[in-house]
Amino acid sequence: MAAVAYPLRPRLSFGRLRFHDRRAALLLVGIVLAYGLIVGKIAGVSLREQSATVFEYEPVALVTMLVVGIPTGIAWWLRPESRFDIKTRIFWLIVSATIAWLLIPFFGTFKQLILPNRGFLWDRTFAHLGRALFGVSPWVITHEVFGSVKGARALDFLYSIWLPLAFTFPQLTAALVPDPRTRFRLIFTWVATWILIATVAAWLLSSAGPVYFNSLIGPDPSYALLQERLSHLARMAASQGEAITTLQYQPILLQVFREHDGLRVAGGISAMPSMHVALATLIGIAGFQRNRAWGFVLSSYAFLIWIGSIFFGWHYFVDGPVAALMILAIWKASAPLACLMYPGRSAMTPLAQGLGASGSTGGIVGDIGVPLAT
């Protein structure tokens, strides 16, 4: 294969962005804006109030774009072989940051101003399903395995890195995935997850979760014991000079929910389906687009997030599998849409195709570029 010459300073020209990229970006932004308008209308929030809420998240969008963009730019500078299709990847980095910037506050409006009106209708059913399957509440089994302070802190660490991974997922996809179809499918699935799983399914399957059962649903001895157990672990960790961070947020969310005095940066209670598991599953899907090793590693992470969600009482046993199945369905359904956005046998640029086949990118492309049209 002939050697490819890489310019030291590639010319960046947004004027030559392909029509397919512009069309795909407009579709994604349009979906998010339509979602925001519908949520705002139902919540009775004026466009002015909604705009003010969105701009509160502007620093977060800028920070996440820089957190992903700066290391990517350094990698481009140090590794000439990675400098292909830069204008398109920068374009998608900006688009993905914009999508995240808009979508998160729109979802916050739904979760804090609309969902509480639904009430928590399914907690007793989901609690019964777990006990019917195992004979005891599933949290008991997780505490038998991870019930030490070290086990709890290990799960807490995995939970703590979920937030930055989940919120920067579109930007990471824009920076690291060169195949347009795969990139579009991953970002589209991320957007659809917030709308179809975190919004529509959360409304239909409204539930609070085990840790809030006694506060919001009714007395339950098993979940009262869970709260005592979690408090004990928190005290033991504190006596060792450590903290279990996720447990610190549980009373804060309950207080915000009860006060119900407008939108907060972080607020709202919803268990089914589990967004923690849904987005962790999407991360696993992205890993498989790289290779099987990454796929199995990141899918193991998703599995442990599911275990952690039960261990800490955020979710019932069934919340995780339902979320995983839903996101797999969305990912499958995104294939024909990606083919519509990027028609042709292969949507990759010629340079990306060559690098994907040769593996010369040392992990930036690898076999991410395998067409996923079928």
Features:
374 residues, mainly alpha, disordered C terminus
What's the quick description here?
The chain is an all-alpha fold and 374 residues long. It has helices at residues 19-43, 47-56, 58-78, 86-114, 123-134, 138-146, 149-167, 169-176, 180-204, 213-216, 221-239, 245-259, 275-290, 292-311, 319-341, 350-358.
Number of DSSP-assigned strands:
0
Query: Separation of termini?
Result: 28 Å
Shape: globular
Class from secondary-structure proportions: mainly alpha
Largest sheet: number of strands, sense, barrel closure: none
Strand content: under 5%
* Percent of residues in helices: over 70%
| Count of separate DSSP helical elements | 16
* Residue-averaged pLDDT: 83
Computed CA radius of gyration, to the nearest angstrom = 22 Å
In N-to-C order, the SSE pattern is HHHHHHHHHHHHHHHH
Which stretches are poorly predicted, pLDDT < 50 over at least 5 residues?
1-15, 346-374
Number of domains: 1
Give a structural overview:
The chain is an all-alpha fold and 374 residues long. The protein has helices spanning 19-43, 47-56, 58-78, 86-114, 123-134, 138-146, 149-167, 169-176, 180-204, 213-216, 221-239, 245-259, 275-290, 292-311, 319-341, 350-358. Helix 4 (86-114) runs parallel beside helix 9 (180-204). The two termini are 28 Å apart.
